[in-house]
Amino acid sequence: MSFCCNKRKEETSHIFVRDMVVETDIGVYAEEHGRKQRVSFTVTAEICIPRSVHDDLQETVSYDMIVQHVLKNTQGPHINLLETLAENIARDCLAEKRVKKITVRAEKLDIYAFAVPGVEIVRVKSR
User: Fold this and answer.
1) pLDDT category of residue 126 using cuts at 50, 70 and 90
2) What's the fold here for domain 4-124?
3) What is the pLDDT averaged over residues 71-93?
4) Sheet holding 99-108: strands in order across?
5) Whose CA is closest to 40, among 127, 116, 126?
6) What are phi and psi of 58, to 5 degrees?
7) Which pLDDT belongs to residue 4?
8) What Å distances lie between residue 45 and 74, 94, 99, CA to CA?
9) Nearest CA among 112, 124, 110, 108 for reference residue 40
10) Most buried of 27, 62, 70, 108, CB within 10 angstroms?
11) Residue 27, Ramachandran bin (φ over 0: left; ψ between -120 and 50: alpha; else beta)
12) What is the model's pLDDT at position 55?
């Protein structure tokens, strides 16, 4: 498989969804099981697009793709680790044809009153 941006007629762009907050069943500790927690996501996709875009969604990637992958992965069964959730979102986004690199930042908003813990991962589509 080759990257789409290796073609001379394509450029790299970034699309993102920032500060998307969803409630999901996550956590490794017993007190976290059976209750939803607010998690904030910021996801940035590096994509390949034609050099001359003609105002056509088919020539790019919609940020709704990111929203749908976050929703799909946060509405399923309980997940222990935030890292696992971020990996699952990254995997699904990288499966999209034009996405070549993905950054997923996930933050648990309700753990501490004084800080926001989280994880950020960067994954690149293998050639």
Assistant:
1) confident
2) GTP Cyclohydrolase I, domain 2 (3.30.1130)
3) 97
4) 10-24, 37-50, 99-108, 118-124
5) 116
6) -65, -20
7) 57
8) 19, 8, 6
9) 108
10) 70
11) left
12) 74
- pLDDT confidence of residue 1: 39
How many residues belong to the chain?
A: 127
5: closest CA among 43, 37, 45, 64?
45
Asked whether 25 and 36 are in contact (CB, 8 A), the reply is yes
Mean pLDDT for 24-35 is 94
Token reading at 86: 């971020």
Residue 2 pLDDT level (bands cut at 50, 70, 90): very low
Element spanning 83, H or E: helix 82-94
d(CA 34, CA 21): 19
Residues 6+ apart with CB under 8 A from 73: 85, 88, 89, 92
Q: Work out the angle at residue 29's Cα, subtended by the Cα atoms of residues 26 and 33, and round it to the nearest 5 degrees.
A: 50
